[in-house]
Write a structure and sequence with these properties.
single chain; mainly alpha; 2 strands; about 0% strand; Pur-cyt_permease; transmembrane; membrane
Length: about 450
């Protein structure tokens, strides 16, 4: 395996799998970040503590279901998300569409996170360096880190995660020293009221791309048990812990601005450490984007471009988005992702665990560490189900929230339409046009 390629278009062999705690640390680092703190502060600014935590729990349950099931499939097969979708619902060309969607979403997130990082550093230097110039510097530096793949993700997680927790710990200590905890626990939101359904969608949408692309990391897990603890601990510990603290701090400082909150409660040391933690989520954004785009180019154009080279290209694109002010669309971006992405994970779960259309081929090729030699070009039912599910989630305002509506709709549409097709199809497992595809070692 070429250095930096990280099995972008191949299975990860068992001898390359990593201990649960190591993969967990990377995943946990994707949750306990500045963006999660921003989300918690936004919830606290518009909600009571009780409502904010309830919204977080519901959003987290949705994230955990998708994370665990997709993560198990990734661990069993040793495949990245976009590559796995070739044999889990979408087909070769359909998976390229998913890879492209994931890539674009993660590039967008990279731009958002990079802007946050740059704004914090610019403030730290007293405005001596503009946010746009700082965006270019930080974007390029993070891009160079991700070129080296999984190992660098692990190294940065082992530094950034403890640093973030120390920063939050310092600020929490000052919070408890200056304010009465009982008063904060029952205090009303300091800002305009935030709708509960929107809040749940924001929580789910804020990490939904991360939940769907869980196989990008879980393919390094050794078994389903490791996936369970990796996803459960990272999501619930990260989401609930950070949200609880962020809500209290938002109520105390009466602001939704994270830098203002950290400066008031923890000083520049805490603010700097929290800002630094942005590196951890942004390297994962770039990593997932490189895997998704690699699959897209291979599936559509039969072009295998180095993942390291792709990382540099999309890192520069994300940096450009940061300079152009992508952060301005932050909340809208969260809500749209919370509606559009869940059906992808739902369709994968139905196809892989219930319909099992390619399980035989996957299991047979797994023994030899290769990809299955046969794959359908398209599964139009998956694409139609995805579109219909998004429309349901976007336009139907009933139910608990739009993210859950789109997830359930996607699973139901796909299962029912596939069953109808299978009833009239001579093929038992209802596969569409198949092509021969040489397996990768």
């Amino acid at each position: 395996m070429v250095k930096g390629e990280d099995y972008a278009l191949a299975r990860i062999p068992m001898e390359e799998r990593r201990p649960m705690w190591e993969v967990f640390m990377i995943r946990f680092g994707a949750v306990v970040t500045l963006s999660q703190f921003m989300l918690g502060a936004a919830l606290g600014y518009g909600m009571t503590l009780k409502d904010a935590l309830l919204a977080t729990v519901l959003g987290s349950v949705l994230l955990e279901i998708i994370s665990f099931l997709n993560g198990v499939a990734g661990a069993w097969e040793g495949l990245s998300t976009s590559l796995l979708t070739r044999w889990a619902g979408f087909g070769r060309l359909g998976s390229s569409l998913i890879g492209l969607i994931v890539g674009i979403s993660c590039i967008g997130w990279f731009g958002i996170q990079n802007t946050i990082f740059a704004q914090g550093l610019s403030q730290a230097f007293g405005g001596a360096v503009s946010t746009k110039i700082m965006s270019v510097i930080t974007g390029v530096l993070i891009t160079l880190l991700v070129v080296y793949g999984y190992k660098m993700l692990s190294y940065t997680a082992n530094i950034a995660v403890p640093g973030f927790l120390v920063a939050v710990g310092i600020a929490t200590y000052h919070l408890l020293s200056k304010y009465d905890l009982n008063t904060l626990l029952i205090s009303p939101p300091p800002g305009p009221a935030l709708n509960f359904g929107v809040a749940v969608t924001m929580v789910a949408g804020g990490f939904m791309v991360g939940a769907v692309v869980t196989p990008d990391l879980s393919r390094y897990n050794r078994n389903a048990k490791d996936v369970f603890w990796m996803t459960l601990l990272s999501i619930f510990a990260g989401e609930l812990l950070i949200t609880f603290i962020a809500v209290l701090m938002s109520h105390a400082v009466k602001s939704a601005d994270v830098i203002t909150i950290m400066l008031n409660l923890g000083g520049w040391i805490s603010a700097a450490l929290v800002i630094f933690s942005t590196i951890k989520i942004n390297d994962l954004n770039l990593y997932a984007a490189s895997l998704g785009i690699a699959n897209f180019l291979d599936a559509v154009f039969r072009v295998k471009i180095s993942r390291a080279v792709l990382t540099i290209i999309i890192g520069l694109l994300g940096t450009l988005g940061s300079v152009l002010g992508i952060l301005d669309k932050f909340v809208n971006f969260l809500v749209i992702l919370g509606i559009a992405v869940p059906p992808v994970g739902g369709i994968m779960v139905v196809d892989y665990f219930i319909l099992k259309r390619y399980r035989k081929e996957l299991e047979e090729s797994r023994v030899y560490g290769r990809l299955p030699k046969e794959v359908e070009d398209w599964n139009p039912i998956a694409i139609v189900s995805l579109v219909l599910a998004f429309l349901v989630g976007y336009f139907y305002k009933g139910g608990l929230n739009q993210a859950l509506n789109s997830l359930i709709a996607g699973m139901i549409f796909y299962f029912v339409l596939m069953k109808v097709y299978m009833a009239f199809s001579p093929a038992k497992n209802a596969k569409f046009i198949k092509k021969s595809e040489a397996g990768e070692v």
